[in-house]
Amino acid sequence: MVEHQREREDLGEGATETETARDGKQISTRPVSLVTWTLATFDTTLFVLLGVLAAHTSGELAGLLAGLNTLVGVAAFCYLWALFVLAVRWVNSRVALGDTPFRTLVLHGVAAGCATGVVFLLGLFAVALVPTIQRGGVRLQTVLVVLLIGGAVAAVVGGVVGLVASLLDTAVYRLAGYLLPEAGTKRVTEPRRQ
Amino acid sequence: MAALPIRTLHVVAMAALVGGTTVLWQSYRSGAVTSLAPARQFEWLFWGGVGVLVFTGVGNLGTLGPPGPGTDWGRTLLVKLTVVVALFAGSVVRTLLLVQASDREDTFDDLHPAIQRTLSRAYGATAVVLLGIVVLAEVLAHG
């Protein structure tokens, strides 16, 4: 949990450019920990891949992808990826995967998922609708109603994704701890090959 | 227009992942590396590469216009996607094992042999599965 603690400290005190490592050397710190980067990327890619698998098995994949511009798809994926990183970072800054009660972890996951869903939708709306509104193509009241309904749906979908992701993240973290071999006192003492 | 750069990025990311995991496998197996630091550095690249592989892979599918799941090509794609999901699931456990090992060891140097053996096996398995995915990709591309 050292990495989580470090991230919580960084978030609490403001990220520093360098910190003293455990072996005394100065190492550069990153805005996210390796655990956050790994779990966020895992969650994002799994979310997308399961969607692709479901679309492929139902025979709808070609139709779905045909209507999607490549660059728009890349931008949407990167946006989703960034939101997952922020969501996982927020959860990891508040709770530790290894030693936090399960209920607390899941509640944080659901909250982060709801927020991510709404922000993702708002981003898409901003890109797709703002130019249309500026041209006067859509009435503002209509947009607000669509935003309210869409926001509620996105929060529910995001909450479910957050719930599943938090369960999955906790499971893989604990599985990794279970598979970690017990280290005795014997260490590798031979000199490193250059 | 964007198809060629996307395809190139896909191949480059896969090459980085296969190369990196193979080097780490051999390094931990032979004892040339007795520290967790190289693996931790590589894991940042690995997961960045995973993200790149997914969005470029979906982009490639969009360009190709994949046939349905009932065709040979569709069945091969189904197998490939399933293997990719399994690879990611296995890889996330490997990375978190590495992180917990470095937390527990409390040093990046002087690695315990049991952990070194586990990492060697984990990177070896990752490299083998990645090569299997390359073969499936070859089948999809060239039949």
From TrEMBL, chain A:
<protein>
    <recommendedName>
        <fullName>DUF7965 domain-containing protein</fullName>
    </recommendedName>
</protein>
<feature type="transmembrane region" description="Helical">
    <location>
        <begin position="142"/>
        <end position="168"/>
    </location>
</feature>
<feature type="compositionally biased region" description="Basic and acidic residues">
    <location>
        <begin position="1"/>
        <end position="11"/>
    </location>
</feature>
<keyword id="KW-0472">Membrane</keyword>
<feature type="domain" description="DUF7965">
    <location>
        <begin position="33"/>
        <end position="187"/>
    </location>
</feature>
<keyword id="KW-1133">Transmembrane helix</keyword>
<feature type="region of interest" description="Disordered">
    <location>
        <begin position="1"/>
        <end position="25"/>
    </location>
</feature>
<dbReference type="InterPro" id="IPR058271">
    <property type="entry name" value="DUF7965"/>
</dbReference>
<dbReference type="Pfam" id="PF25913">
    <property type="entry name" value="DUF7965"/>
</dbReference>
<keyword id="KW-0812">Transmembrane</keyword>
<feature type="transmembrane region" description="Helical">
    <location>
        <begin position="61"/>
        <end position="86"/>
    </location>
</feature>
<feature type="transmembrane region" description="Helical">
    <location>
        <begin position="34"/>
        <end position="54"/>
    </location>
</feature>
<feature type="transmembrane region" description="Helical">
    <location>
        <begin position="106"/>
        <end position="130"/>
    </location>
</feature>
Automatic annotation (TrEMBL), chain B:
<feature type="transmembrane region" description="Helical">
    <location>
        <begin position="122"/>
        <end position="141"/>
    </location>
</feature>
<feature type="transmembrane region" description="Helical">
    <location>
        <begin position="45"/>
        <end position="65"/>
    </location>
</feature>
<keyword id="KW-1133">Transmembrane helix</keyword>
<keyword id="KW-0472">Membrane</keyword>
<feature type="transmembrane region" description="Helical">
    <location>
        <begin position="7"/>
        <end position="25"/>
    </location>
</feature>
<protein>
    <recommendedName>
        <fullName>Copper resistance protein D domain-containing protein</fullName>
    </recommendedName>
</protein>
<dbReference type="Pfam" id="PF05425">
    <property type="entry name" value="CopD"/>
</dbReference>
<keyword id="KW-0812">Transmembrane</keyword>
<feature type="domain" description="Copper resistance protein D">
    <location>
        <begin position="39"/>
        <end position="140"/>
    </location>
</feature>
<dbReference type="GO" id="GO:0016020">
    <property type="term" value="C:membrane"/>
</dbReference>
<dbReference type="InterPro" id="IPR008457">
    <property type="entry name" value="Cu-R_CopD_dom"/>
</dbReference>
<feature type="transmembrane region" description="Helical">
    <location>
        <begin position="77"/>
        <end position="102"/>
    </location>
</feature>
